[in-house]
Every structure is written in structure tokens, then in C-alpha cells.
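Entry 14. Ran structure prediction on the chain below.
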Amino acid sequence: MAQKFRKKAVIIEAMLWDGTAEGATPVINWILDGNGTATYRDEFEPQGNSLGIQTLEGTMRASAGDWIIRGVQGEFYPCRSDIFEATYDHVDRVIESRSYDNVPTFHVVQEA
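Output, C-alpha cells:
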């Protein structure tokens, strides 16, 4: 019998790619800075402009308007805008919780 599960609440980082070569540069730099691998493929490719992103499952192609996500294990992967918008909400601030001597402590790490 199938069981029901809820997706754990996690905070991810993501960048929206506009499909241009100029827009690809900050996305690729972000991926490279995170020890990922990404390449820009220009309009002469059969699929048009795209980003090739090395993921845990192999190379995935990001198209214009896709969100590029850094996952909980530091991995990068593309996500279509419609799926991203149905799955994620913008976070206004990141709150980190820690426990000191079994006393939970919460503080703002970053204002978005």
C-alpha cells in the first residue's frame, strides 16, 4: 500500500537564466565557484542557446527561463520555471538554528 510523504522544508539557492550569453556568465561563474561544471552552448546548436550543467545524473540542459538550483548537497541542476514556481517560495530572510547546551538559538544569517 502506498504511503503519503511531505517534502522536507529546505532552503536552496537559485538563479534565473534569461537565455542570453551575457546572462550565462554569472550563472556559470556561480556554478564554477561552487565546484560544479557548466558550459554555454550557442544558438547554432540544434536546441538553441542552452547551458550544459553536470549533475549527479549526468549532463542536463538548461533553456532560457529555467532556474538553476544549488541543492542541499551542493549539486547544481536546472528546473523549468513552472515547476520551480509550484515548488518553491521566495525566502525573505534565512534563519539558522543551532543548539548551545541543549538550548535552541535562532538568528538571521542573511536578509534576501
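Residues 13-111 form one domain. Will compare against last week's run tomorrow.
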